[in-house]
Amino acid sequence: MLLIIGSLIVLASVGGGYVLSHGYLPMLWQPYEMIIICGAALGGFVISNSKHTLIEVFKSLPKLITGSGLNKALFMDLLSLMYDLFTKIRKEGVIAVEADIEEPDQSPIFAGYPAVFKHKVLIEFVCDYMRLISSGNMQPHELESLMDAEIETIQHELEEPAHAVTSVADALPGFGIVAAVLGITITMRDISAPPEVLGMHIAAALVGTFLGILLSYGFVGPTAIAMKNEAHEKVKAFECVKACLIANMNGLPPQMAVEFGRKMLFSSVRPSFNELEEHVRSR
To answer: Exposed (0-12), middle (13-18) or buried (19+): which is 120, by Cβ within 10 Å?
Structure first.
C-alpha cells in the first residue's frame, strides 16, 4: 500500500508543480518516448538476469503492495512454535520431535501455526537444524557457523531481485538521454520547419530525459529499496530461529530460549516479553 501512496505523491508533486507553473500537462504525454525508454530498460533487464531472478522480481512486486505478512503476529507464532518444540524436547527427549520435523505437514505442532507454515523455506530451515540437533553430533558453535553461512546465502538470494531492479533504475536516465537524442535527430530532419514546430519537437525530445530521470529516482529506485528492506525483514525470521536453537542447545529452558529469538527482531515487529508470554500460554 505504501508503494501506491508514495507513487501518487510523486505524480501529484511533479505534475502539480508543473501545472501550477503554467505548464501544459498533455505535452508530457509522449508514448513513443515511453516505448523507447521502458522497452530498452526491459530488454537490458532481461539480458542481465537469470530466469530465476526475473521470476522472483515479478513475484516480489505484488508483495510490496499487499505486504509480506512478516508482522508481529507472525513472529509471535514463530516464537510460540519454537517454544512448543523445545518444550516437547525437554519433556520427552529430542527423539520425540523426529516425527514432527520429518513430516511437518502431518505434525500437530506445526499445524497449530498455519501462518508460519506458509513460509516453506523457513519451515525447512527449522526442520533441517532440528534434525541436526537430534543427531547429537554437533556442538553449538559448529551449528551456529553452519547457520550463519546458510543465512548469508539466503540473504544473498533474497536481495537478488532488489539488485536487479536497482540496475534498471541506474540505466533509466541513460535511456532517457537515448530517447532525447533520437528526438533531436527528428528535429534536425525538420530544421526548415517553422519555429513553433521545431519547438514542439525539441520539447518532446527533452521529455525523454525528464521521463528517464523521473522513472529512475521517483519509482524504480525506491521500489528496489523497498524490495531490499523486505529481504532484510525475511532474513530476520531466520536469525530469530537461529538464536532460539543455539540458546536451546546451550541448555536454556524454552522460555529463555525464545527470549533470545525475540531480541533478534526489529522493534517494529518485536512483541514485548509479556505479549509473548501471554501468547505462548494461550496456545
So the answer is: exposed
Cα–Cα separations (whole angstroms), residue 135 to 103, 131, 165, 247:
17, 6, 42, 17
- Give the Cα separation of 49 and 54 in Å (integer): 7
Q: Is 49 inside any structural domain?
A: yes
* pLDDT value at residue 202: 87
Measured over the CA atoms of residue 255, residue 115, residue 146 and residue 231, the dihedral's sign is negative
Q: What confidence tens digit (pLDDT) does each residue in 224-283 have?
A: 999 999 999 999 999 999 999 999 999 899 999 999 999 999 998 999 999 988 888 876
40-54 per-residue burial string, b: 16 or more CB within 10 A, e: under 16: bbeebbeeebeeebe
**DSSP states of 181-192:** HHHHHHHHHTTT
Domain tally, the chain: 1
Quick one: CA dihedral 80, 269, 233, 224, positive or negative? positive
Q: How many residues does the chain have?
A: 283
Residue 181 lies in domain: 30-282
Is 39 contained in some domain? yes
Does residue 13 sit within a domain?
no
Any domain includes 142: yes
Residue 168 clears pLDDT 90, i.e. is over it: yes
Q: Output phi, psi for 178, to 5 deg.
A: -55, -45
Q: Is 22 left (phi over 0), alpha (psi -120 to 50) or beta?
A: left
